[in-house]
Amino acid sequence: MLAIAFTSCASWVMAASTVDYTESDANFPNPERGFYRHRESSSSEPKPLTIHDLKKVREDESISHIYFGVYLDTFKTSPISEEYLALIDKDFNTIRGSGLKMILRFAYTHDMKKKDDAPLDQVLVHLQQLTPLLKRHADVIEVVQAGIIGAWGEWHSSKNFGSGSARRKTLVQALLKAVPEPLFVQLRTPAYKQVIFGVAGLTAEKAFSGSDIARVGFHNDAFCATENDMGTFNNDSERTYMQSETRFVPMGGETCAHNPKYSCWEIASEAMAAYHMSYLNAGYHPKVLASWDKNIEIARRKLGYRFVLKTSTASTAIPHGGAMDFRLSFVNVGYAAPFNRRECDLILRDKARGKIHRVPLRVDPRRWLPGPHEIKEQIDLKTVPRGRYELLLHLGDPSRSLNARPEYAIRLANDKVWEPDTGFNKLLQTIEIR
Q1: Residue 42, Cβ neighbours under 10 Å: how many?
Q2: What is the CATH number of the domain that holds 429?
Q3: Which residue in 75, 184, 311, 408 has a CA-CA distance of 20 to 30 Å to 394?
């Protein structure tokens, strides 16, 4: 629906148009959110990822990311070999080629009985070796789970890292140094973060500051499994703490046991909203996911962010060298905001020649928590030539390597706005610079 309104200016009349948008309930992949698929690499049985497999994940399931567990099981007492480092490098390139990102975790063992992870001194050597790889492939790393300690890197069943030990704090500090800023590291429970950083939570002012405490989120690998999620929470204050923290840090995980009293849709959906859940394992636990029945489609849409345009208003006739009044209202109907940095550009595309003019908007999508939002800016157009331009919105990846790739741009949940070839969202507005 298009409505034309007129506002008067001192020496000329400026027309403005308002467009109302229609919400879509379609499921589609969006970066750094939603269900994920599980993949692993092991130094004892190396098997490279394949582009064919990963592209099927995206194309057949509308999934935008994988969990990638890298097991350094043959290097518990020695440096990582150059051959295996090269294989990891190749796998990271395969992920990039597929249009996916990865939730990354390093670990040393699957065995809960042997508890045979690596000692801290050896882990620190490995992190030094891995740092160049992490830096080189930061564009396709969504988040790094702390991992390393114990069976599956889940911070239990460890012979080298005692519960609450100083070694755990040293490990987290080393991880934060190895993982390029501003990427996040996730811990298994809220208590681990409180032991290391204190019980005072993040404020909106301290969020996304680049400080260590602002870069630590959570993954719950026993989501809604028991009353306390198998030890994830020790008390209600830890629940409150995690609910507050996850406004500004990433939260994800997996279900691990079918427990009708706690893993039912009614409880799980409330928890996903309360803890601002961005991602869950699409394959585990199958009984839990099956019990959600048709509600699984709600989870597919609402995990992480989901932005729905409501209206936009823009000046339609602007004198050359002037400015355009621009307003955009939308709602985040998902469970969380994007947690990684994200660009937000207004695109002016010349209708005659197709040339693009990009205007960065003064907004931070990481602040777009669930609920209504508005962008209201006066857009300086003094460098834009005369002509007719259509308006589009580009929520692109900030990395230079991915910014132009539509797989890594955010798609808005509206009908008739998405351009799959560009990753732009059409605002269905046309302006004229005279």
Answers
A1: 16
A2: 2.60.40
A3: 184
If asked whether residues 332 and 276 sit together in one domain, one would say no
250, 143 contact by CB (below 8 A): yes
Half-sphere exposure (Cβ direction) of 403: Cα atoms closer than 13 Å? 9
Q: How far apart are CA 220 and CA 255, in angstroms?
A: 8
pLDDT at position 322: 96
Based on the domain organization, do 282 and 336 belong to the same domain?
Answer: no
CA angle 15, 18, 23 (to 5 degrees): 165
Q: Which domain holds residue 409?
A: 2-26+306-433
C-alpha span between 247 and 367 (Å, rounded)? 8
Q: Which residues contact 173 (CB under 8 A, 6 or more apart)?
A: 212
How far apart, in whole angstroms, are the C-alpha atoms of residue 433 and residue 322? 8
Strands 307-315 and 251-253 turn out to be unpaired
Query: Using an 8 Å Cβ cutoff, are 401 and 99 in contact?
Result: no
* Look-up of token digits 């396709």: 140
Task: Spell out, as residue ranges, where the chain has pLDDT lower than 50.
Answer: 1-13
Beta-bridge partner residues of 269: none
Distance between CA atoms of 38 and 36, rounded to whole angstroms? 7
Q: Which of 269, 302, 335 is the last residue of a domain?
A: 302
User: How far is C-alpha 290 from the geometric centre of its chain's CA atoms?
Assistant: 25
Which pLDDT does position 14 carry in this prediction?
A: 64
Rounded distance between C-alpha atoms, residue 59 and residue 135, angstroms: 28
Of 302, 320, 346, which one is at a domain's C-terminal end? 302
Reading the block at residue 354, the tokens are 């197709």
287 and 318 assigned to the same domain: no
| Cis before 285 (ω within 30) | yes
pLDDT at res. 15? 87
Same domain, yes or no: 391 and 312? yes
Q: What distance in Å separates the CA atoms of residue 380 and residue 322, rounded to the nearest whole number?
A: 7
pLDDT given for residue 165 in this prediction: 81
The verdict on 385 and 243 lying in the same domain is no
- What is the separation of C-alpha 39 from the centre of its chain, rounded to a whole number of angstroms? 18
